[in-house]
Design a protein that fits this description.
Radius of gyration of chain A: 19 Å
CATH topology of chain B: Helix Hairpins
Strand content of chain B: 5-15%
Number of domains of chain A: 1
Largest sheet of chain B: 2 strands, antiparallel
Number of helices of chain B: 3
Shape of chain A: globular
Distance between the termini of chain B: 53 Å
Shape of chain B: rod-shaped
Oligomer: heterodimer
Number of strands of chain B: 3
CATH architecture of chain B: Orthogonal Bundle
Helix content of chain A: 40-55%
């Protein structure tokens, strides 16, 4: 049995705390409506770490084509896909009907809605990400933070 | 036989509580980092799949473009084709920005106004055949795919690096840090039990000595 000084581990714990801070770094400080983004020359949002996340205009125009003028106000981008890795499910918070309408059109089927959230399965998430690579963002479910 | 390493701490209850807190933090981080690794891997596989599909599309487009160019070359001759192509040159506007995928900053490239109609390309439509139009159109599409492929390739590299780094963190937590903290907690608990036993024995002996008097 060999013993190592406790001080050696201080850096390790610091790194662990840093790992936790990385998790929310890519999330936007404030989401913007589709209409607002379409009006920007280089559509982007600012992330928690201060970097910019740009959107592809092609995707925005595609979404605007699906939702029309009214829907463009109601859809906040990026769409946050909250992943629960344990169950293999993902969910998208559905504040208005815009998210549901867009996802329904992209997937070609009506996804399940439970408790104000659109429930997606992994293949559906992959299909959604393929079309909306910059307009969607992953986030880890807050449940993961609770387990100790 | 591997030797169990421990964290050297003073054998006090405070240290035990501190170690238990650290174990809880390490376990929580391990779970979350594993989740992140899963998402990154999912994204990596998606990008890789898309990369393969785009490559196949590019090969197909380039094949068609060169076939059409060969036909145009045979139809017009190299001199006329060179002359017509002289006026088609232009600068391309590619805007480069970044997108953030689970904390990985990936490049994003967009080409503006790459595809043109035949009349906008600049060569004479009266003196050239449809083969040249077809070749030009397919080359424009190929170029668009090439830019997209470049973006995907770099994204793939960056995601790969991040996956490797996250995997190292997960492994370090799973195989080094958590077992060491657990072993240290066990060691401290054994030490406390030992102390308790010593204390009991001491008290018993004291009782015997006192009863003899």
């Amino acid at each position: 049995m060999t013993m190592e000084a406790d001080g050696l581990y201080e850096g390790v714990y610091e790194r662990l705390r840093k790992e936790l801070s990385i998790l929310g770094a890519h999330l936007p400080v404030e989401r913007k409506s589709l209409r607002h983004l379409l009006g920007e020359e280089r559509p982007h949002v600012i992330c928690n770490d201060g970097t910019a996340h740009h959107f592809k205009r092609r995707e925005l125009e595609y979404l605007a084509g699906i939702l029309g003028a009214e829907g463009a106000d109601g859809l906040l981008l990026p769409i946050l896909i909250e992943l629960t890795t344990s169950s293999g499910e993902a969910s998208v918070a559905c504040s208005g009907g815009a998210e549901l309408k867009a996802i329904e059109r992209i997937l070609g089927m009506k996804p399940a809605v439970r408790g104000g959230k659109i429930i997606l399965y992994r293949p559906q998430v992959a299909a959604l990400r393929k079309v909306l690579r910059t307009s969607t963002q992953y986030s880890i479910s807050p449940e993961a933070f609770k387990t100790g | 036989m591997s030797q169990q390493r421990l964290i050297r701490v003073r054998p006090t209850k405070i240290e035990l509580i501190r170690l238990k807190r650290r174990l809880s933090l390490a376990r929580r981080v391990h779970g979350i980092v594993k989740d992140r690794l899963l998402i990154l891997t999912m994204e990596f596989l998606q990008v890789a799949k898309e990369n393969i599909e785009l490559r196949e599309e590019l090969v197909e487009k380039m094949e068609g473009a060169y076939r059409a160019l060969g036909l145009a070359l045979g139809y017009h001759g190299s001199e006329q084709l060179d002359r017509e192509c002289l006026v088609t040159g232009r600068d391309l506007k590619i805007s480069a920005s970044t997108k953030n995928v689970m904390g990985v900053r990936c490049p994003m490239l967009e080409v503006e106004g790459l595809r043109r109609r035949a009349a906008e390309r600049g060569y004479s439509l009266f003196d050239t055949s449809a083969h040249l139009d077809e070749a030009a159109g397919l080359f424009e599409e190929s170029l668009e795919i090439m830019v997209e492929l470049g973006e995907l390739k770099k994204t793939l590299d960056l995601l790969g690096l991040e996956i490797a780094r996250t995997k190292r963190v997960t492994n370090a937590l799973e195989h080094i840090l958590i077992p060491r903290i657990m072993a240290s907690i066990k060691y401290l608990q054994m030490k406390f039990e030992e102390r308790e036993r010593e204390e009991k024995v001491r008290l018993k002996r004291l009782k015997i000595v006192l009863s003899r008097r």
